[in-house]
Amino acid sequence: ADFDAKKKRKVAEIYQALNSDPIDVAALRRMAISEGGLLTDEIRCKVWPKLLSVNTDDLPPLPGKELREDNKDYQQVLLDVRRSLRRFPPGMPDDQREGLQEELIDIILHVLKRNPQLHYYQGYHDIVVTFLLVVGDRLATALVEKLSTHHLRDFMDPTMDNTKHILNYLMPIIDQVNPEVHDFMQSAEVGTIFALSWLITWFGHVLSDFRHVVRLYDFFLACHPLMPIYFAAVIVLHREQEVLECECDMASVHHLLSQIPQDLPYESLISKAGDLFVQFPPSELAKEAAQAAQAERTAASTFKDFELASVQQRPDTVLRQRFRDRLRGEERLRGEERTKSILTKPRTNRFVKLAVMGLTVALGAAALAVVKSALEWAPKFELQIFP
User: C-alpha dihedral over 216, 219, 224, 227, to 10 degrees?
Assistant: First the structure.
């Protein structure tokens, strides 16, 4: 009864945010992050477009079959989609699944055709099929296109440089929280490639329960583009005992970590990932960007521009912005020293900080903090900072 009451209350709050004028996107972000996420696919159809600033009154026409002619990606997309049987609900009739697979191919080719700067990668279809199953082909086409030119853009570069760079955030996050696990993984020389499929499919490829996948998508759509790597870090940290009991060699540790458990405590891990993002934002984990031109091309560094497109322009927003501007002036004076010291500070400081702030904040507090902080911590990248 208590669960049902909480659910009803949350549904009411979501619809209140949707019906406000202007739509309260900040409240929708909090709802998507906090316990249970957006609850139903019916609600996701309404909220996901708002989180991505997609106008549902002006959707593109459905792509035609002519996209398949002379398309350099068609054969690879076809192979990947044919292999995607397990991403469809068990028991779905073959003809219905085959129809959805055809739609999946068309959506992918449509986005690539309209955005020639984007390059297809294996695993992209795992993200697209999630949107197709939740919102249908026409809306999925618009949402995936926006997502591909923002959150996923680094994975769609001609090379994997930016993807590797994002993976390089994994070990510093683990090191801040649990140096013992970090040092063990370093000794095993396991690297971060075990988390590649997690990152580039937003865990869609590795989780068997669709409910868990869409819950994570609620979370990631509402947050900074680097949040999936924080979530990857909390999965490793959650498995601390298994990791430390493993043989300390690359093959053993890689095998262990690449087999992702299906019974993870998702709500707890989402809360911890949000908390770690607030405690150790990307800007504190990265050195000053040495290659400014490269930095400007990463999706994470342009998140502020994307986020501002959907923020509500209310009087209190303007006042808060002025207050933040004042604080930034003071912060800038201290910022340089903090940046220099953050990667070399004694490890004891980390434990003091964790003890003071608490490793896991309440879900509501984590949600609010992540929403507020995402604007402030759009990072600048340097490609080779964590060799």
Answer: -40
